[in-house]
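Look over what follows to help learners.
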Amino acid sequence: MYREITTVNAPVYQIPIPKELRGKKIEIIAYAVEDDKQVINKNNKSTSKASFVERTKHLTFNSNGYKFDRNEANDYE
């Protein structure tokens, strides 16, 4: 997977395709990113973890009364 986040001011933009993707069928999607906070430095794990915790701290999960049922999980027809 190749991901690049950039600001483009020209009507034409060239994207370098990594060697492992050359010759393969690829999909290129462009969309506007609303908030720069969505960009996480993947080389800094502590920043990534802190950012994840900050973005998900309002989420809660209550598992009281929950019991995993393997038969139900395997019944997907």
The helical segments are 45-56, 70-74. The chain has one domain: 19-74.
